[in-house]
Every structure is written in structure tokens, then in C-alpha cells.
Amino acid sequence: MGLNKVIIIPDSFKGTQTAREATDIIASVVCAAFPVCKIVKMPIADGGEGSVDAVLSAIGGNIYEAQVQSPDNRQITAIYGISNNNTAVMEMAQSSGITKQTSLNPMTSNTFGFGQLILAALEKNINDFILCIGGSATTDGGCGMAAALGVKFTDKRGNGFVPCGKTLCDITDIDMSCLDERVKKSSFTVMCDVDNPLFGENGAAYIYGPQKGANPDQVRFLDTGLRHYGDILRERFKRTYDEVSGAGAAGGLGAGCMAFLSATLKSGIDTLLELYKFKEQCRDADLVITGEGKLDSQSFQGKVLSGILRETGNIPIYSICGICECDPALLQEKNITVFQTSEGITIEESMNAPEKYLKLAAKRAMDALL
Fold first, then answer.
1. Per-residue pLDDT reduced to its tens digit, 310-350
2. Rounded CA gap, 201 and 215, in Å?
3. How distant is the alpha carbon of residue 148 from its chain centre?
4. Considering only CA atoms, which of 352, 159, 142 is closest in space to residue 263?
5. 221 by DSSP, 3-state: which?
6. Cα distances (Å, whole numbers) of residue 330 to 5, 299, 327
7. 5-43+281-367 homologous superfamily
């Protein structure tokens, strides 16, 4: 089979390679096998880790740094991007992510640092924002972010405080009068890769609390807090956010962004595919090569692969992944051919030499075409 045009659009291989690194490695192998083939590089993300890099790869821009508060109240350096068209692109994981704390703190971690990151961009006279909210450490409903931007929360005694998961139930009033005026003049689009509601059995606490360190009792407490928070938001803003798709993303930050920033929530992968003009690029493509660390059933639920599948039609898809746990029948139905970097070795071995084994998997993919 000859190739005239290939789109290379992998996600990051978490813990080993960024999406950009994976894209370049795969592209080098494709180019060696098919020297005259047109290669279109699209390092991708779904709203989580790597989203800033992916957006800037699509539309160009520069990286900046800001000093912010970590989820466990330390000073850390966070990065964010400003695109060539003056849009700030920021990952909440950079400021309030689960990897930005010294230990898991499911009850007390907060998103204050994410609000500070937004302030840093506002100081540069930016008023268009893309917020990527995957990878959070928090279950504070975005209250920390709001507090950093000037929103005041009070308890039944009239005392002001910055709510966290542990104290969501203590909120009795929200005062928006001191919200930074620049926020009101700005536009916020939130990229998220989940569609969970704010609370309930599929909500932020029950689905994501355990991976943030919450035990069963804490999960129930956090869910109760989110229910109370949802009631307070409804009273204050005369709108119900509870069941909006994505309200429960990042520990309820999705709901907080809608309430405090008047943000629009969008699928992370769909947003990036639009920026890349992926659908148009697919019209004359012979092959799409994607990839990720682990290919499983979740890959088809709001993640990178699900977005790609919606736009590719009958174009064959090669997925190069660390490990595949998908039903072969499903892969055949979706016209996906899988090449694992861990083929014939352990996943640990493949992760210890990621570039070597990604190249080998990409080479097997090209050999299948020759």
C-alpha cells in the first residue's frame, strides 16, 4: 500500500513521552518508510495534561510562568500559554493538579492557584481564555479559583473563608460584588474530557474522589458538600448547574467555571480537533496514526480516540499504544489496527526505553503497509 498523506495525532504516553515527542518519533519512522508521503503532525490532548502544548501546536504561541499556590498551600511555578491570537491557554493541572502536592489531600486541597493563574494572564491584558481542567487534585467546586478572583464566601456566622471539599457544607452566602472586573469582560471556554454531573453516584466525589485519596466516608462527605454547594449556586445564580454535562469535572470546577466565569464547557478533544481543522485534513488522508499509553474502553468515551473516530469516516486508523485492553471485535468494527510498544516484553521494559520501543512499534506499523 502506498501512502500519499498521513495524519499523526497521538496523545501523550503518560509518564514517558509528551504528545509532541511521540508525534515526532512516529513521523520519523513514517518518513523513512515513505519518503514522499505528506505528513501532518497534530500532537493532541483531551483537556488534561499536555493540552497547552497541543493548543499552541495548533495555533502557535508562547509559554509563560507564574507563581501560584499549590493545592496544599505551597508556592510553586506554573506555566501557561498565550497564543498568537492573544488567547490564554491554561491547564488547571499546572497549578491545582494531583501531581502538584507533596501528598494526597482530598478534603483540603483547593483551586486557589488556578485563580491566580487566570489573574496572571489578565495582568497581560488577555481577555480570551481556554481552560483545560483535567488532572485535578481538588473537590472544591472551583471555590478556591473564585476566591482568588475576588468572590467572597461566608458561613452562617458571617465569617469569610476560602472553601475546600471539607468546608463546602459551610457556605451560606456568595458575594460576587468584588469579582475582578476584568473577568466580567473576558470570555472563557472550558475544555474537559468527562461528562459527569456535580454530585450523585456518577458525580465528582464518587467517581474521582478515590483517586484523589478519599476513603469511602470522605467520598460521602464530599458528595454531601457538593449537593449543598449545588443548592447554594442555584439560589445565588438562579440557574441549576448540577446535571450539566461536565459540571462535575475536576471536582466540580466545571460548575464553578460556569457560575463564576460564565464559561462555556466543551469537549476537550472536539475543541482541539477544530483548532487543527482535523475534519478538513482527513478529506484526502490515507491513514490516521494515533496513540496513547493505554488503549481501553475509556478511550472511546470522550477521550482522544472517540473524537478522532467521529471525523475519519472510512480512513484506516492505526493506534500505537503502550498496552491494549480492548475487545478485538470492537477494534475490527472501528477499523482500528493496534501496535503495542510492549509487544513481546513487559510494560515496564517498554516504559524504561520509551523512544526505542515506540520506534519499533511504529516500524511494525509501517511494515504492515509494505
1. 899 889 999 999 999 988 988 998 899 999 999 999 989 99
2. 15
3. 22
4. 142
5. helix
6. 26, 12, 5
7. Glycerate kinase; domain 1 (3.40.50.10350)
